[in-house]
Amino acid sequence: MSPAELDRTDPEGAVAAMVARVSNVGRWGEDDVRGTMNLIDAAKRREAAGLIRTGESFSLAQSFDMDGPQRGWRRRTNPVHTMLDTGSDAALGNQGFPHGIGGADDVIAMPLQCSTQWDGLGHIFDHGRAWNGRPAERVVTSDGDLVTGIEKVADVVVGRGVLLDVGRVVGAASGDEAGELPDGYAITTEDLERTIAVQGESARVGRGDIVVVRTGQLSRARREGWGEYAGGPAPGLSFTTAPWLHETEIAAIATDTWGFEVRPNEFDVAFQPLHQVAIPNMGLFLGEMWDPDALAAACAADGVYDFFLTAAPLPITGAVGSPVNPIAVR
Description:
Layout: H1 11-22, H2 42-49, E1 57-59, E2 80-85, H3 87-91, E3 105-109, E4 117-119, H4 136-139, E5 140-141, E6 144-145, E7 158-164, H5 166-173, E8 186-187, H6 189-199, E9 210-213, H7 217-224, E10 236-237, H8 242-247, E11 252-255, H9 273-282, E12 285-288, H10 293-302, E13 306-310, E14 321-323, E15 327-329
Parallel strand pairs: 7-9, 8-10, 9-11, 11-12
Antiparallel strand pairs: 1-15, 2-3, 4-12, 4-14, 5-6, 7-13, 13-15
Helix pairs in contact: 1-9
């Protein structure tokens, strides 16, 4: 199916039909709490370790500071960093420590999804159901995610990463030398497959892989200012890519945009319908606001697009998302 074939007036019907086609509910047992992270096993990690050639490493995280992209959408703010003890306190002798020792401490307050992050399995519901068919009210309460909290995968998000630089490949095909897809561009399955074909064998995608998609929107935001980067129009995956996400058996997918899927969405009245399919029904982990630019330049330089990737969430008990500092090692 192409985006043009979607019935823009019926997102609910489209979601239901897609769920029937790609659901993983029950696949790993009725008690499962890890979803597609079950697809990363010891063999996959050993394979990933063998990809390290130069030892060069890249952080795929944006900064966590008050100059970030957040502008209050859904009450999300940029991190507020406050010093509790400083060098001034030490110099003035206000800390009360003996023999001249001093120190500094600090605290940070922030929404867990204000910068580079994972969406956990308790983040999105479908008609009152959370991942694996559980009633949402029995999963996430005011005490947090009691079943599929992000801490459940804190030790497993290590494996083979694959960069799909769709911005560069599709952009080049359309004459855009900057390698940046325009806001509202819906990345299709054809675009993903074309990118893999152009990038070559190292860009093949399969079971247990963690896919990182570069659209180029973050590059543009760096140049032109944040604007509506957090919550506004963006390039992203088309709703029609759900079968590809399922059939490739990837463990997770992350993008350099705030919401992973194309915005505005592909229906007349809809809000993140691909999330509605992917998280509660496929158990697929989604990463957002990742920064693949430096990695993309290195991959383009030598033509190798797979790498060892570690991207563990903070084990925040009961959280439905987590900040992350993904590290790619080539």
